[in-house]
Amino acid sequence: LVIWLPALCRKMGIPYCIVKSKARLGTVVHQKTATALAITGVKPEDKQALSALVSAVNANFTEKSDEIRRTWGGGIMGTKANAKVAKRDAAAAKLAGRTKAV
User: Fold this and answer.
1) 37, 44, 71, 96: least surrounded by Cβ within 10 Å?
2) Distance (Å, whole) CA 2 – CA 87
């Protein structure tokens, strides 16, 4: 669900957000837990609250999702990854030295 549902919502222009826990979604539907929630109908007296929620989701999550996706990880590698890259670079340099000599 987490892989294709956000992509589908982005494509169709539907506001979405990822909630921290299933229990928080469960409180909305008066259950212990819930994995996904789709709001299809809204009572007239709740439309104001829903529009405030949608604007908050759009401002804090949907519009920033591209920015977050682009900066994820920061390009900082760990010790094992650095050692692996160094080993690969050394092997490439050694191979390049052999091909020049031949």
Assistant:
1) 44
2) 35
Residue 87 is predicted with a pLDDT of: 96
pTM (2 decimals)?
0.51
Question: Whose structure tokens read 């920061």?
Answer: 74
Provide DSSP, 33-80: --S--------GGGHHHHHHHHHHHIIIIITTHHHHHHTTTTT---HH
* Contact of 35 with 25, CB cutoff 8 Å: yes
The low-confidence residues of the chain, meaning pLDDT below 50, are none
Q: Do 10 and 65 contact (CB within 8 A), yes or no?
A: yes
For residues 49 and 28, give the distance between their C-alpha atoms in angstroms, rounded to a whole number. Answer: 14
Structural contact between residues 36 and 24, judged by C-beta atoms closer than 8 angstroms: no
pLDDT of residue 33: 92
Rounded to an integer, what distance in angstroms lies between the CA atom of residue 42 and that of residue 65?
26
CA–centroid distance for 19 within its chain: 12
